[in-house]
């Protein structure tokens, strides 16, 4: 049975840099559905499976050998908190997709622990998304998705899957965990796309 942690409650600071309905936090609240997976780096693997079933896989050591980027981005949670100018380190999805042969339109993201989410593939490319393993110069903790999480900062943070292990490329869109429970299929914070119908 999954457990959903309660939303962050705190002083609500407003800022002109925030999407509508959001408030600023200087903390980094931990919100998860279910227990926190502990993933061994020796067995960690990330796999992109294209729409015809071909797998492209990377181990932790493979990923560490790829060019690294250090994006500084704002992040926005559907529970209405935002954190500005967060610093990460990881590999651009563009780098991984250089070796992937696909004509798919959608990505279905899978995580250790069973979490899933869906996105249009175009939202993972052209400098929009990373697999990150460091936050503010430190290794990403398990509570925040370590050893690796997806970072898609232009969408609500539930699309930035923690403990990510793979992406299945699809010709059709398949709802993920929260999307199946009434969250918006896309999740643009600037359009307040929190729930179905927003």
Automatic annotation (TrEMBL):
Transmembrane annotation, as ranges: none
UniProt xrefs under Pfam families: Oxidored_molyb
Domain Oxidoreductase molybdopterin-binding: 34-178
Region (Disordered): 1-21
Record-linked SUPFAM superfamilies: Oxidoreductase molybdopterin-binding domain
PANTHER family recorded: OXIDOREDUCTASE MOLYBDOPTERIN-BINDING DOMAIN-CONTAINING PROTEIN (PTHR43032:SF4), PROTEIN-METHIONINE-SULFOXIDE REDUCTASE (PTHR43032)
Protein name listed in UniProt: DMSO/TMAO reductase YedYZ molybdopterin-dependent catalytic subunit
């Amino acid at each position: 049975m999954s457990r959903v942690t309660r939303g962050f409650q705190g002083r609500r600071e407003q800022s002109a840099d925030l999407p509508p309905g959001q408030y600023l936090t200087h903390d980094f609240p931990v919100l998860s559905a279910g227990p926190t997976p502990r993933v061994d780096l020796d067995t960690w693997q990330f796999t992109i499976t294209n729409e015809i079933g071909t797998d492209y896989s990377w181990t932790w050591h493979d990923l560490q050998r790829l060019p690294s980027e250090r994006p500084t981005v704002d992040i926005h949670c559907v529970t209405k908190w935002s954190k500005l100018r967060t610093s990460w380190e990881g590999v651009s999805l563009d780098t991984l997709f250089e070796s992937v042969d696909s004509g798919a339109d959608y990505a279905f993201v899978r995580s250790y622990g069973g979490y899933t989410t869906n996105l249009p593939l175009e939202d993972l490319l052209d400098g929009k998304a990373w697999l990150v393993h460091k936050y503010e110069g430190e290794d990403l903790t398990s509570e925040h998705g370590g050893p690796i999480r997806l970072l898609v900062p232009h969408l609500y943070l539930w699309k930035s899957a923690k403990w990510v292990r793979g992406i299945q490329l699809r010709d059709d869109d398949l709802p993920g965990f929260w999307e199946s429970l009434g969250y918006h299929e896309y999740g643009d914070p600037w359009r307040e796309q929190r729930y179905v119908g927003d």
